[in-house]
Amino acid sequence: MSSAILLPEGYKYITAPLVSLGWVLLWQGLLVGRARKRAGIAYPQLYAEQAECKANPVALQFNCTQRAHQNTLEITPIVILGTLIAGLKYPLLATALSSAFSVGRVIYTLGYKTGEPARRVPGVAISNGATTVLLLSATYTVCQLFQLL
């Protein structure tokens, strides 16, 4: 016996930005590995110490690169959840917002890894804006599904 799940029209589109997010995370991880090697920060040390950063700008760049990756990992479950749920009612909106998140994370990472944390702000604005609207859209979708609105 087989069973089928009927997905809303257009739901397939949300798969592309979700997979692209996986590529963004992989790319960030590779950047962290390179920055770790350049800075000479041995495993399992998660970050360079403050004294190391003051003495060596490359250590600060490692910390910033590591933090960009870590921050993306922290927010990714919310983006995935928001995309999957909002996509049930608004697949094109969810696709656009999830795509914007990934683009924002690339801009965020490129700015942050310079060692000047303020350069991450444009990417933060894009990715956090997309995340907020995704979560609001997912919440609205849940309310609609439970006929709360």
Account of the 3D structure:
With 149 residues, the protein is mainly α. It has five helices and no strands. The longest helix is centred in the middle third of the chain and has 33 residues, at 57-89. The protein starts with 14 loop residues before the first helix and ends with a helix.
Helices and strands, with pairings:
Layout (H helix, E strand, L loop, with lengths): L14 H25 L10 H6 L1 H33 L1 H22 L8 H25 L4
Helix pairs in contact: 1-3, 1-4, 3-4, 3-5, 4-5
Membrane topology: Multi-pass membrane protein
GO cellular component, one term: endoplasmic reticulum
Pfam families: MAPEG
Order of helix and strand elements from N to C terminus:
HHHHH
- Name the CATH class: Mainly Alpha
Number of helices: 5
Low-confidence stretches: none
Could you say what the CATH architecture is?
A: Up-down Bundle
- Between the first and last Cα atoms, what is the distance in angstroms? 37 Å
Major sheet summary line: none
User: Could you say which overall geometry the principal axes of the C-alpha atoms support?
Assistant: elongated
Question: What radius of gyration results from the CA coordinates?
Answer: 18 Å
**CATH fold name:** Four Helix Bundle (Hemerythrin (Met), subunit A)
Q: Note the beta-strand portion.
A: under 5%
